[in-house]
Amino acid sequence: MDKNEVLKVLTPSFFDLVKILLTAVVILAVTKIQLFSDKLSALLIALPLTSLIAMIWMWHDRTAGSVADRGEGIANHAYYTFWFVLPTMPMFLILPWMLRRGMGFYPALGFNALITIALFWAMVFLLKRYASINLM
Prior knowledge:
Elements: H1 3-10, H2 14-34, H3 38-46, H4 49-61, H5 67-85, H6 91-100, H7 105-131
């Protein structure tokens, strides 16, 4: 990729600004809903909103190429997202457990980040070795 192509990719377009605004509105809405309903905000966050929004943006960004090519790129994204989500799941049990026992938010978050990184690399190693799935 030459310098002009890199600059073209990195220069925000009007559609990029629309994507930023709509994505921010979703995040803002969920954080506002949390103020009156932890359960509803958790449900909305549990939905793969970020992935769904990203896949919609990817579909529209890939105007070049066939529909099959765009579909294959999104299929790969969804497939790898599944595997990358798995090592994050324990955080949603460990973090509340730590917070309820008096650990500060940022230390608990940092500890959970380390656990997630360790689980991620363990999963990468195990999947490559035993299932022939190469995530990296």
